[in-house]
Amino acid sequence: MPRVVHFEIPADNPERALAFYESVFGWQSQKWDGPTPYWLIQTGTEGLGIDGGLMQRQHPSQPVVNTIDVSSVDEYTQKITTAGGEIVLPKMPIPGVGWLLYFKDPEGNIFGIMQSDPSAA
Question: Which helix (H) or strand (E) holds 112?
Fold first, then answer.
């Protein structure tokens, strides 16, 4: 069963946001060595939970996005559209990580789906 495995927080000032989450919750961050500025966030090592990331906000209404791990982005794209969802950002590679797509559910909530594939480029 696919599960939420990652969250993304958009920020106008990533350094300020990272300092806030570290100060309040003790979260740790590390800048990702990828094609765009992105910080990986570790929320802890004990108990239930997920880790995530933080990025520069691209537009004022950009939401926090939860990403769901799936076996095939293509397969789940079909399931999403058949069930009334809408693709808002088409399938794209995240180099060395996998394939990512953003969709909107019938209630207007945006989620990501991620297929692991280290050869994605």
Answer: strand 110-116
Q: What is the pTM of this model?
A: 0.85
Burial class (CB in 10 A: 0-12, 13-18, 19+), 101: buried
Decide if 83 contacts 104 (C-beta within 8 A): no
Quick one: fold of 70-121?
2,3-Dihydroxybiphenyl 1,2-Dioxygenase; domain 1 (3.10.180)
| Distance separating the N- and C-terminal Cα atoms of the chain | 26
Question: Was domain 1-60 assigned CATH 3.10.180.10?
Answer: yes
Q: Are 118 and 99 in contact (CB under 8 A)?
A: no
pLDDT tens, 52-106? 999 999 999 999 999 999 999 999 999 999 999 999 999 999 999 999 999 999 9
Q: How confident is the model at residue 47, as a pLDDT?
A: 85
- pLDDT at position 48 is 87
Q: Give the chain's radius of gyration (CA, Å).
A: 15
Structure-block tokens of residue 72: 């095939």
